Amino acid sequence: MPSLGSVTAQQMHFSDPLPLRSGATLPAYDLCFETYGTLNAERSNAVLVCHALNASHHVAGLNEQGQAGWWDNLVGPGKPLDTARYFVIGVNNLGSCFGSTGPMHINPETGRVWGADFPVLTVEDWVDAQVRLVQRLGIAQLAAVLGGSLGGMQALAWTLRHPDKLRHCLAVATAPNLSAQNIAFNEVARRAIVTDPDFQGGHFYAHGVVPQRGLRVARMIGHITYLAEDAMETKFGRELKAEELAYTTQGVEFQIESYLRHQGDKFSAYFDANTYLLITRALDYFDPARDHGGSLTRAFEGARGNQFLLVSFTTDWRFAPARSREIVKALVDNRIAVSYAEIDAPHGHDAFLLEDPRYHGVMRAYFERIAQEFAA
Amino acid sequence: MSERRDLEIIADLVPAGSRVLDLGCGTGELLAHLRDHKGCTGYGIELDDANVLACVQRGIDVIQLNLEDGLALFDDHSFDVVLQLDTLQHLRKTENMLRETARVGRIGIVSFPNFAHWANRLHVLQGRMPITRALPYQWYDTPNIRVGTYADFELLAQRCGLAVTDSFGLQGGEVVRWWPNLRASVAVFRFGQR
Questions:
Q1: Which regions of A40-165 does DSSP assign to beta strands (E)?
Q2: Which residue of A has its CA nearest to B59?
Q3: Model pLDDT for residues B28-67, shown as the tens digit of each residue
């Protein structure tokens, strides 16, 4: 499939303080973003793509390092989200470590690096910041907001907080809140980071160290939850790293260990420890029903003018299909237009990032349907 | 085109502007017809991937579900009409599905192949399972796990506490009201809850 070719990230500064859900305020901030395709004269063909835990504004095309975007198989010319028809925006969330204001930057009020003092963020705070970016780009109403996993939560939050600023919401492999098991995995990851001596209470930047051991373990546990058990069995099984067992408790015996360590090493070299804490916490906090007396149905009352596509994957045990069906039920209760596809894919939670003809077929068909609204 | 006529006859049973749930909606053809000609809204339920895709392509709101799992997604009487066309015979929990249909919709409309159609009887008299337009499968390779007759359904409807408000047969794109159990290959029932 053709790609967008090279793309360039842009920065936008916001000097209006951003009130946060926690009660704190972010005095000023920058957002890093990329855009693909052309905004039409009516400004009606814009789609915002929200990212999940470890991704960024670099959704598609090749960046300056020659790396393809994290959703390059879905977004580009001729792809399901076709940049020949749509103007696509990818934005790095606040608190992240890929260019937008985050804990590794200077707190203008103290002149020191934020570190662990960076304000705690929620999905709703991210969405409020995204709204300002979209406004500054001159777009009053998005054709759609699209996201997977944590990105799907942002897409949902758009319809809950700013339903008049978008028409369609596409939420893939997501959930209306985290389960106790989800929170438990996040907590193990956070403890791995926080208990790494190099974490230095979150102020490791000043000490010239990085809590890489903690980040490695955090990534390893996260990675297990993104894969389906069967897929892991097929890929690794009990395959050994060497020809014979070495009878070592600390060395690598099995391929799966080698794989997880490799993923951990890679991740710990580029990801920020405070960002990991902030983003997993944002996941934990997301719970729109909680703001409406525990009723997800009531939470979506304001979204009656929006239309939805939800997609889940049968082997995703982290954000299982039953969680998407809870959202479908809340929408149906409100008589909101919704389509829901449950894709029988073997890859677990990771499936939302992979190319699957049934999955991409539904995405393409839905985007073609949206395009008819502004092409007419 | 008797299939097209059948679709129009069924559509005529649906009041204009109804909120419709179509169980086993296929490619969404009937829902599209109801939307375009009668101003109806609602959802289709479908299990098959290709049909789900066809619905999205048609602009029909479709929810991918296995009907055997029930209709827990839908509140009591949340739809004006629940359609269950050419679907009943594929479901294991037939009785449960009928009760669910009556719970969710104010009006239920069901159609299914009538095993007592004279052509089928002729096949059976000759000692063979029927293969016809309405029942096109070999006995060992059929998705129809429940075969019943027009007359059988009347009894089941009674048993499920359904108030049948209309019923007829369909044959060759025509409504059959005179001896439908013998003369029609497809049975149609409209009912509410007693």
A1: 46-50, 75-76, 81-82, 87-91, 142-148
A2: A369
A3: 999 999 999 999 999 999 999 999 999 999 999 999 999 9
Q: Which residues of chain A have pLDDT under 50?
A: none
* A170 touching B (Cβ < 8 Å): no
Q: CB within 8 A of B137, min separation 6: which ones?
A: B131, B143, B144
Integer Cα distance of A137 and A161 in angstroms: 19
Token pair belonging to A354: 């992979």
Picking from B110, B114, B106, the residue whose alpha carbon sits closest to that of residue B148 is B114
- Is the CB of residue A116 less than 8 Å from the CB of residue A201? yes
Contact A176, A329 (CB under 8 A): no
Helices A180-194 & A212-226 angle (0-180, nearest 10): 160
- Are B131 and B140 in contact by the 8 Å Cβ rule? The answer is no
Contacts of A329 in chain B (CB under 8 A): 73
In the set A125, A312, A349, A350, the catalytic residue is A349
Alpha-carbon dihedral sign for residues B177, B181, B184, B187: positive
B73 contacts in A (CB within 8 Å)?
Answer: 325, 328-329, 332
Q: Do A329 and B73 touch (CB under 8 A)?
A: yes
B178 half-sphere exposure, CB direction, 13 A CA radius: 0
For testing contact with chain A, the best of B27, B41, B64 (most A CBs within 10 A): B64
Interface contact A338-B49, CB threshold 8 A:
no
Given an 8 Å threshold on Cβ–Cβ distance, is A335 in contact with B75? Answer: no
Size of interface A-B (CB pairs under 8 A): 52
DSSP state of A202: G
Residue A198: what pLDDT? 98
Chain B, nearest residue to A358 by Cα: B49
- Residues 281-340 of chain A with CB under 8 A from chain B are 309, 325, 328-329, 332-333, 335, 337-340
**Residues of chain A contacting residue B65, judged by C-beta atoms under 8 Å apart:** 325, 340, 342
Which pTM value belongs to this model? 0.95
Is the pLDDT score of B115 beyond 60?
Answer: yes
**Residue A149 is among the residues annotated as catalytic for this protein:** yes
Is the separation of the CB atoms in A296 and A176 below 8 Å?
yes
Give the C-alpha separation, A98 to B113, whole Å: 61
Residue A316 is among the residues annotated as catalytic for this protein: yes
The token pair that represents B75 in the structure block? 């509140």
CB within 8 Å of B30: residues ≥ 6 apart: B7, B10, B11, B22, B83, B85
**Given this model, what pLDDT does residue A309 score?**
98
CA distances from B165 to A113, B154, B191, B192 (A): 74, 11, 5, 7
